[in-house]
Amino acid sequence: FITVSAGIVTIAWPALQAKQFRRKCDVFEEDVPSLWRSDCHSSQQKNSRPLLSIIIPAYNEQSRLPSMLASTLDHLNDAQHQLVGLCQDVLDSSHVESHQTENTSATKLPTSVPPFELIIINDGSNDGTISSIQNFLENRQNSTSRSSLQATVRILTLRQNSGKGAAIRTGMLHSSAHVCLMADADGATEISTGLPKLLQAMASEKTPVAFGSRAHLQQKSQATRTASRTILMHGFHFFVKVLCSSRVQDTQCGFKLFTHAAAQSLFGNLHLTRWAFDTELIVIAERLHLGIAEVGVEWKEVEGSKLDDGGKLGLAIISLGMLRDMLCVRVCYSLGFWAMYESNDRRKLD
Hints:
eight-stranded mixed sheet; 12 helices; 350 residues; 46% helix; alpha/beta
C-alpha cells in the first residue's frame, strides 16, 4: 500500500505543481530603456500587433544572454525584409488560416511600429540577469536610432523560479504577435538560418507549428558525448515514443515556432512547468489535430547548461523527473483528468 501510494503521489506531483503555478503565478514587468518600449513608437500602437515575438526563458543567464540578444537583434535588423515576407507567407497559407481566430488574409501587418518583439522571461533569477539585460539595452541604445529600430523588448519576471515550461508559457500567453518563436538564452541554435527555415517549412507544409530538430546531428554528437549521456539520451527517446508520441524525432530542441492561435491553444492547455513540457506540447498538438513540421537546424553546444549543474547525479535526477512528468501526462490525459480547450476558451484554464 505504501509503495502504491508513493507511486501515485510521485506521478501526480507535476499535476499539483501545475495547479499551484496557475493559481499563484506572480508576474510583473521590468523597466527597459525608453527606446525599446513597445508603447513609445506610435499612437496607433493599440491597433497594431507585432509580426513576430521571440520568447526567451532566462534563469541565471547574466553571462550568456547579452551575446544571444546581440546576435538576435543583429539578425532581425539585417534580415527584416526577408523575415517580414516569410511571416506573411505563413499568414497567407490556407491551412494556417483555418486555425486562426481571425481572418489572416485580411490582417493588417504593422507598419508604424517595429515588426518584431523580444519577450524575455526572468524565471526567478538570483544573479544579475536583469541588470545585464538592462545594461546591454542601454549600451545598444546609444548606437540605435528610433527610425532604424526593428524590435521592441519586454522583460517579464516570475517572482519565484517555476521552470522552463512555466516561463515559456508565460511569455507565449503574454504575446499578441502573429507568429511566436521560443529560443533558448544560450543562443545554441543559429537564428540567422534556423528562423527562416522554420518559417519556410510552416508556410510550405501548411502547419501552424514548426519544431527545430537536431536529429540530423545525432551521430556526430554521440562521438563527443559521454557514455552516460548517450545512454540517458536513448532511454529518453524510448520513453517519449512509448508514453507520448513517435511523431517528432527531437522533442527537446529549444527552438520552436507557432502561429498565434496555435500558441494560445497549446500553451493555454500546457500543465508541465519544467524540462519535459515539450513532450506535453506534442500530445496536446495531436489531440487538437495541429500539424507539426520538423526542420533540421544548426546547433552547437554552449557552456553553462543548467543540465550540467549537478554533474552526472544531477543529470540522472533530472532524467528521472522527466520520466515522471511523461508518466503524469499519459495518465492525466488518458483518464481525462486534464481537459482540452480551444484557444478562445483559455480563460477557463486559469
